[in-house]
Structure formats: structure tokens, C-alpha cells
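Field reference: sequence -> structure
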Amino acid sequence: MNMAEIVVTLGYLAALLIWAFINSRGLTVGLWANRAAHLATSQTPLIVALAGKNNIVTLLTSIGYEKLNVLHRASARSTLILIWVHAFGRWRLGLRGHASLDEVDIRFGVVSMAAFSLAALLSVRPIRNMAYEAFLVSHIILVAMYLIFGLLHVPEVKYRFWPALAIWALDRLLRMLRMTILNKLWVYVFPIGKGLDDATLERVSSDTVRLTVRRSFKWRSGQHAYILAPSIAALPFEAHPFTIASAYSEESHAKGSPQEIVFIIRGRDGFTKRLLEASETRQSVPVVIDGPYGAPPRLSHYSTSILIAGGSGVSYTFPLLLDIVRQAKSGNGVAQRVLFVWVVRSASHVDWIDNLLQQAVQDCPSTLQLSINIYVTQQSLPELSHENGVKGDMTSIEKKQSLAEISTTSLTSSRKARVLSGRPDIGTMLKEELSCASGLVSIDVSGPSALADATRDALVACNEAQPAAVLRGLPRTTLHLEVSP
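Structure field:
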């Protein structure tokens, strides 16, 4: 939880607690205890709505559901506090008579409270990341228990619970319709000797696979989609989100051809581990795609873009780079400079996107200054000297025409592709880029939280990025973070 989320949660909770305790006639227990319960149930439809992939807020504002999840968590945590405030108040009044634990409706309330509390506990990131699939199943079951037993506890406020159930059902229905249309699932309802369309499965490194599927739909660079692979999934309808690592092709759309959708997936545990293991014996796997989702920033109006990725986070930044180069090549963009930074553990990881990255370098027009720096953290690379005056720890990739070689033959000195040993000095890099930038600057980071934190801290410490810097004529800077667990 970052500072912004803490502030939002505390502010949200403070507002609800004020409404719970204000004008309670000298803090009369019965008043604030019941009011806390009413406020908690009033949040229920909102909590469910903000958790859905297809919600009215996203449709009206174009804010991605993953961004709204901050409000979902703030509302849920505040509701948890209100539920316990209500329980404490009823305990203070005494658990007797109609409030006795012998009463069935009171027991229903206890079960509802316990289910919601456990759901909130298991949602804590460290616990959630340890076993995401188990979290997903338990979360659905526990929230369903909260809604059902809450409805049985206080049936007189059923108008607070039924909308939540209806919203959840609507989200499921919309997702099913989207998947049916996108994957043409009606073809498989009536057997014609054909199964689900297969996705190409390719092992690109010891712990990473590249999944390629062809579908006819449109997406923006930086968006993600959910993958359902019935033959690999441990649970029915198990879906996992992955960033689309390829850029949408207008040419394919004009020809009416399906789009090639690429996912770069790091095998860790659960579904991704099973997918990695499947790549050892299989070259394809039947999949269903649900998407696209997300509202990534549009970089078309930024003069300078700094794209920083760690590991498989390149799935997010690489399509943004392709988009900028494509716009510059067609003369539609305003971008003047792009710095693409990728931190990988092994030089072999560059093979994930090597060919496409070389193509992007070659397609880059003279109007766009492009610099590509790839940092290899676990290999020592021999120092090479280049005719354009650039020196550093560089090497070719797998004896191919390397990015470094392209930089000496195809690019001017202002557009270089370098493979370096070690980790980038984020602070120095940002300071250099911002000091010479003009116009709007976008900094987009995708990868581990350590990389995001380092970039955020470096930007805070950089004088060129302070609010007062704009008054000195320096460019306005926007930071966007996509943090992986």
C-alpha cells in the first residue's frame, strides 16, 4: 500500500466514521452502533461494482477497473471497520433478548461478519500473492457468504444486498458475452469437429514463454487481456490477466485479417508454472481471450517519453515504443525523443522481442531521437568501443546482428541501441533527460515494485521534476507506474 492509497483509505474511513458518530445524542451506543451498520450495508453495492471488470464508472469515465480498485479496497476496509464498530456497539448494549446469540438472525450476522473479515484478511497483498488462485476462489465464496448471510441477518435492508448480487451477475454476463463474441464460442456449442482456437506456445528462456494468438479485436498499447486455458487451468473458468506485448496493426485491420496478439509470461507458480511446464511438451494450447481491459496513458501528445521496464514488464513499455515509432513514421505524432530502458537478468532475455526491437530501430524516422539501453544484471559483458564514440559494456546477442551493431551502422549518434552490464542509475538518467527535454515529458515504468520505487524516489529528488521547475521553463513531467507483484 503506497502513501496515496493510505491517504484515500483514511479519508474515506474518516468521512464514514463522522457520519456514524455525529449527532448521536451524546454518543448514545444504540444510535452509532445501528448507524454504523446502515453505513456498512450502504457500501456493499459500491464495493461489488468497483470490483467488476465491466462497471458503470469505467464506462462513464474511461478509468480502468484496475485504477478503481483503489476505491474498492478503501471502501471495503472502511466497511470492515464499520462492521466491527457495529458489533462492538451491540456487545456494549448486551447480547440478550432479541440481540442474543441464541437468535438465528444474530448468528447469521456473526457468520456474515466473519466471512467479510476473513475475505479482507486474505486480500492483504503478501497473503494474496502467496497463492493467488486459492485467494480468488476463497474471495468469491466469502463475499457470497457475506451477502447471503447479511441479507438473512437484516432482511429489511434487502435493497442494499440485492443490487450487489445483481451487479455481480451483470458483470459475469457481460464478460461471458464479450468472450463469446471475441472467441466465436457459438461455433463450438454445435460440434463441427473443431475445438477452441489454439495459441502458439514458445519457450523463450528458462522461465518465460511467449504465447501468440490471433483474434479480430482492437486494443490500445499498454492494455491487458485475460487468458483462459481450460487444458492447463486447475479450476473451471480460471482466468489470469496479462499485458498484451504487441501493438495493434491498422494494416491487418484494413485487410480484415486477425490481429496477432502476443503475451510474454514469466513462469512463477500456479497457472504460469503449469503453462511453463506445458511449453516443454506442447507447441500450442487452446485458449479463450477476454479483453482488452485497462486505460493506459496516451503518449501521442508528449514530446519526450521515457520508458523503463524490468523483466517481463517490457510487455507494457514495448508496445508503447512501437506505437510512438509508428506515429512518428506516419507523421502523426509530436514525439521528439524516446528513451527505452529495459533491465533484464540475462542477455538471452532480449530474444523475447529482439526481432521486433531491431525492426523498431530501423523504422525510426530521422525526426525521432531514439535511445535504447538494455541493462543485463547477472552477466558480465566485455567492453566494446564503437566508431560513433559510444563506449560501454556492450555485446552482441546470440551472434546475431545485435542492437549494438545496428546502432553503429543504421543510426546517428543521437539514436543508439546499447546493451550494458549492471543496473541503471535512475536518478542520473532522469536528471540528464529532463535537463535537455522540451515540451511535455512522460515517464512510464513497468516492473517490480523496487524499480517503481527507485524511479519515484529519483524523480522526487530531481530538481528538474519539482513543481517550481515549470516556472523556470523546464518541462512538465507525468509519471505512470505499472507495478507487478
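Note: Residues 198-293 form a domain with the Elongation Factor Tu (Ef-tu); domain 3 fold (CATH 2.40.30.10).
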